[in-house]
Amino acid sequence: MKIIHKISQIREITKNLNVSVGLVPTMGALHSGHASLIEKSVKDNGFTIVSVFVNPVQFGINEDFDKYPRTLENDAQLCEKLGADVVFAPSVDEMYQDTRELTLVCPPYSAINKLCGKSRPGHFDGVATVVSKLFNITKCTRAYFGQKDAQQLFIIKKMVKDLNFDIEIVPCPIIRESDGLALSSRNSYLDENARKEALKLSRALNYSKELWQKGIRDKDILRDSALKILEGLDVDYVEIVDPETFEDWQETGKKALMLIAAKIPPTNTRLIDNMEL
Ligand code: AMP
User: Which positions does UniProt annotate for beta-alanine binding (predicted)?
Assistant: First the structure.
């Protein structure tokens, strides 16, 4: 398996491939969640590229770009073990000549004025831009995204449709620890106590799902019971949307997706999770 840092080298490699190419875009610090995407790509495609790039354009000024974990050597070992063909790990300079003078891909306001888009202004412009660049650089056939970042997946699917990218987007289920905590590179910021607190996210989702299964469809009851479990955390949002449209869920809607974002004190680590009810 090769580790490649230059766009020109990736282009050279993919130019003459006559097999399908799977792309798994990541920011590195790989865990079993990422591994599930890589395994699926290796199974589905003749060639798999894992990109490892902490994208400055999708971080706000007070966010964790500088301290985000960077573990390229371990990441590459895992990718090799899983059968990936290339790790593409460009530098910021390789990806962006000047981030202040950059052509951005901007998802529509209706898709970003809620949930993570609302609390992280500019975040999804950064995501859509870097993902478009990775699509153009790798010329992938398929790209793999986790349902853990449900709003991101929704926005990428819409971007691919709106901009006619000839790429199949493959959604992959959320991988959790045995106690329910959704795997995240940011879990490495948590000490033992904070980790216990972080379990409240999946617990709240599971409880709401139980209520849903008992027939409860009152949005306030579902949200309030989740908020009760989340007490002690700095909750950013608890929302219920229609998973197809990401519009607010209406009580006549058959399917409902509950999404939570919260900071875990005292670490200030912002975690997200979601579950179909
Ligand atoms: P990140 O490195 O956090 O940007 O994530 C890269 C990809 O891995 C995204 O498509 C995420 O949705 C996906 N991912 C992250 N954590 C998980 C998880 N626990 N289960 C499934 N997919 C995940």
Answer: 58
